[in-house]
Amino acid sequence: MKVNKKNERNADKGFIYVASKNRRYYHLAVYSATTMRDFFPQANITLFTHEKFLDKQSDIFDIVITDIPVYYRTKMWGMANTPYEKTIYIDADSAIVHRDISILFDSLEDCDMFFAPTVNYTSANIAWAYMDKIGRAHV
User: Fold this and answer.
1) Pick from 1, 90, 124, 132: CA 20 to 30 A from residue 28's CA?
2) How confident is the model at residue 29 (pLDDT cuts 50, 70, 90)?
């Protein structure tokens, strides 16, 4: 497994993103991680993706793992290979909009797993595939 560490923090809690099969998922994950940094700058964030998708924007992640399968269940593979003791998986098409993201790990204290309700206004459910650096939507 190829791993690029941008930050040598010893982390037992962290967030993971998986961007596989299509480059647009990589761009969505970068955007989502950027919104995470806005509200939780010290978050430990790992990206599972393909090396051919990477560009300078991948610097937003602490760890980038590129030796991943091309498979429709790569999310599950990423969870099984998390570098953290406690992991929160974030869909690539999510945007973090509140500082309470920093307290999600408190919810894991008494359980092994929890799920958030489906929100019908994530980017996968509207008519854009990714946003460029100046906020223009691209389909």
Assistant:
1) 1
2) very high
